Request: fold
Amino acid sequence: MMKKLFFLLLFACPLMLFAVDSVSKQVPEVSKNTNIHEYFTHTERGLVNKIWSLVKRKKFDTLKREMTQDFRVIYLNGAIQNRTYALYSLISAQIIDYTIQDLLLTRTKDCIFAMYVLNVRTAISPMVTTPMAEMSTFQKVDGKWKWKADANLNQYYFGGS
Reply:
């Protein structure tokens, strides 16, 4: 019995090592220093930055064209609003600067889900940077990516009530 086990391990171990080695050559190595953005195209990464850049530069007519007709936003208090109200809220926020961190992207054929922390400074409080956990979705409409929805995830990301 021991001989059988010994020979099984003797032949199985190199075979397993060969299989693991051949699979590892097909999958790119991901280390702690690997930037998650490397696995997505410039367009996918740039969608989130594009919308907040338009807000910062107060290009709301352009931003409106980048949104779907049925755009929805879900606010921290649970309110769900349409595109018109969302644009009004973005204008009212008076964002003067922003940074994006912890961007995670998931893509299907015609949809991109982006989760990230948006750090904003507003004209109302220019010395304070406010972090907001967000999830934005983009949908491909007539071959072009459009902003479909946005949700505030502070309660889930940062905790609290």
Q: What stands out?
A: Strands lie at 67-74, 80-82, 95-107, 111-122, 130-141, 144-152. The chain is about 40% helix and 35% strand. The helical segments are 2-26, 42-56, 60-65, 83-93, 154-158.
